[in-house]
């Protein structure tokens, strides 16, 4: 079988036999000398990570912090998993009750948080520009788009996605009461890892993406309704998933309150800064911000 | 024939694969007799330049008609992306004469430049992290070359901007940059889609869509005359 194949391989180039002999010899040398043939270099280049990756999937090998394989374990998700996690951040009743404990905590991913926040940044920048255009549509001023909304949105979102989970993780770590009432339960739901909090927070922003598009509708009470709805839904889902860990903390109410407050603050900030016309409906604004 | 066969048998299995792979390359470039005396030292500079230019032009052509999957991946270069990126950044930059105007919002030259290169690097890093088997610069090369439809859309929009603006012309610009976006995404997906494992393809394609969408947004929003 093998002999037949190699014979075919030698003949398939359609060279005359003595020519064939000569080219083959040259090409073997060319592997070592000819720099122009960069086909051989990439081949060696991307054979290697593949070999390293295979054992990594099974026994969770420890890679160096600076290698790409170290981070590959945070991107080891499939399309349906990502979709399921997005759904779980909006409609927790669609997935099983301890979805967070079973799935996200064991295998937090960074794909979702990174790309959801990127999408949100550019959605806000684009629809903020559309909102700005709609506001100045009936004015004489020549409207120009503002590219720099991207930088403001990026700063706000990245601060939120990285700093708030960090603070929450620290708070949970140092305020958890060592309760000895139920040994099994404490082992089951220890305080969540930092990565799973990043993951959870990143996915919880996904509801703001459709809301950011809807914020372009220039009706003030509708905009505030969207703020309330989005912040309430994703904040409630956050609390829902974190409830077992939060309950063990000394400052249960302070933590719950600050999680919700930060969520409302983020939504209100987005809406007021990027989408809102400042001079209308003052009474509604006051009543919301005090609540 | 006989001499080759005896030599062939002496090679271990690994070397056979290399010989087989290398034999394909010269038949791509031209007749294999030429590549034997391939030497760039004493050829006129015009030939060297034209050969590289022809390679770049060939790749642009493959982006416009993306049917052969491996043509862009074989030999990457960054000349085409550099040209496209510089062109787009030059056209897209905000006008300086209205710098005191509060609402002069176009990006700076450097911002577009950085957006394109960092964007391509991030999208590539994403596909590497997802476990795709493609080298870093090959992917950056493909992403850069696939900017070509968007750059074309930008040039057409620039020409349209010379006319007196009305809502029909805005609609026309919107349609043109949408076509550019779809074309670029389609081409990049065609070239890069196969490098991902099954079940992660959508995860790798989505950032590419986002990247080209942002650049198309810049194209359609650009209205500095």
Automatic annotation (TrEMBL), chain A:
TM regions (residue ranges): 110-130, 150-172, 193-215, 221-244, 251-275
GO molecular function annotations of the record: small GTPase binding
Domain of life from the UniProt record: Eukaryota
Pfam assignment, any one: Yip1
Domain Yip1, first and last residues per copy: 99-267
Keyword line: Membrane, Transmembrane, Transmembrane helix
Chief subcellular location: Golgi
Compartment(s) where it occurs, according to its Swiss-Prot or TrEMBL record: Golgi apparatus membrane; Membrane
Cellular component GO terms held in the UniProt record: Golgi membrane
GO biological process: vesicle-mediated transport
Membrane topology: Multi-pass membrane protein
UniProt family annotation: Belongs to the YIP1 family.
Name assigned to this protein: Protein YIPF
TrEMBL record, chain B:
Membrane disposition: Multi-pass membrane protein
GO CC, one annotated term: Golgi membrane
InterPro entries from the UniProt entry: Yip1/4-like, Yip1_dom
Subcellular locations according to the entry: Golgi apparatus membrane; Membrane
Biological process per Gene Ontology, one example term: endoplasmic reticulum to Golgi vesicle-mediated transport
Domain of life: Eukaryota
Primary subcellular site in the record, as a coarse category: Golgi
This protein's UniProt keywords: Membrane, Transmembrane, Transmembrane helix
Domain Yip1: 72-218
Regions crossing the membrane: 112-130, 142-164, 170-191, 203-220
Family to which the UniProt record says this protein belongs: Belongs to the YIP1 family.
Name used for this protein in its record: Protein YIPF
């Amino acid at each position: 079988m093998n002999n037949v194949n190699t014979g075919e391989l030698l003949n398939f180039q359609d060279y005359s036999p003595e020519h064939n002999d000569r080219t083959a010899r040259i090409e073997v040398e060319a592997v070592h000398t000819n720099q122009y043939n960069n086909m051989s270099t990439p081949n060696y280049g991307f054979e290697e990570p593949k070999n390293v990756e295979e054992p990594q999937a099974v026994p969770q090998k420890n890679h160096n912090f600076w290698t790409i394989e170290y981070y590959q374990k945070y991107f080891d998700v499939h399309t349906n998993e990502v979709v399921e996690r997005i759904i779980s951040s909006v409609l927790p009743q669609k997935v099983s009750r301890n979805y967070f404990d079973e799935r996200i905590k064991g295998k937090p991913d960074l794909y979702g948080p990174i790309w959801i926040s990127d999408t949100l940044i550019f959605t806000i920048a684009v629809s903020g520009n559309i909102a700005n255009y709609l506001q100045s549509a009936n004015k004489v001023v020549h409207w120009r788009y503002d590219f720099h909304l991207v930088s403001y949105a990026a700063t706000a979102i990245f601060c939120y996605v990285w700093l708030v989970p960090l603070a929450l993780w620290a708070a949970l770590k140092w305020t958890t009461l060592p309760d000895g009432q139920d040994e099994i339960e404490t082992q089951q739901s220890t305080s969540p890892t930092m990565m799973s909090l990043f993951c959870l927070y990143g996915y919880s922003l996904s509801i703001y993406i459709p809301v950011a598009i809807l914020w372009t509708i220039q009706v003030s009470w509708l905009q505030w309704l969207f703020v309330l709805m989005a912040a309430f839904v994703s904040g409630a889902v956050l609390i829902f998933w974190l409830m077992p860990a939060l309950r063990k903390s000394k400052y249960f109410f302070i933590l719950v309150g600050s999680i919700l407050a930060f969520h409302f603050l983020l939504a209100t900030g987005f809406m007021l800064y990027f989408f809102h016309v400042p001079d209308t409906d003052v009474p509604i604004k006051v009543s919301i911000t005090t609540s | 024939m006989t001499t080759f066969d005896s030599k062939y048998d002496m090679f271990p299995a690994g070397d056979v694969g290399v010989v087989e792979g290398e034999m394909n390359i010269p038949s791509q470039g031209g007749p294999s007799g030429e590549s034997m005396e391939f030497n760039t030292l004493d050829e006129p500079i015009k030939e060297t330049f034209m050969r590289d230019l022809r390679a770049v032009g060939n790749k642009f052509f493959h982006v416009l008609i993306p049917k052969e999957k491996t043509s862009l991946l074989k030999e990457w270069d960054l000349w085409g992306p550099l040209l496209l990126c510089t062109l787009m950044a030059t056209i897209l930059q905000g006008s300086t004469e209205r710098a005191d105007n509060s609402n002069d919002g176009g990006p700076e030259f450097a911002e577009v430049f950085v957006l394109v290169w960092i964007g391509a690097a991030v999208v590539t890093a994403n596909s590497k992290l997802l476990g795709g088997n493609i080298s870093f610069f090959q992917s950056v090369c493909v992403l850069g070359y696939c900017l070509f439809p968007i750059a074309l859309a930008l040039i057409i929009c620039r020409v349209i901007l010379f006319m007196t603006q009305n809502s029909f012309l805005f609609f026309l610009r919107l349609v043109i940059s949408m076509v550019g976006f779809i074309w670029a995404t389609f081409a990049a997906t065609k070239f890069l889609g196969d490098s991902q494992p099954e079940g992660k393809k959508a995860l790798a394609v989505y950032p590419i869509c986002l990247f080209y969408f942002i650049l198309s947004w810049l194209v359609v929003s650009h209205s500095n005359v």
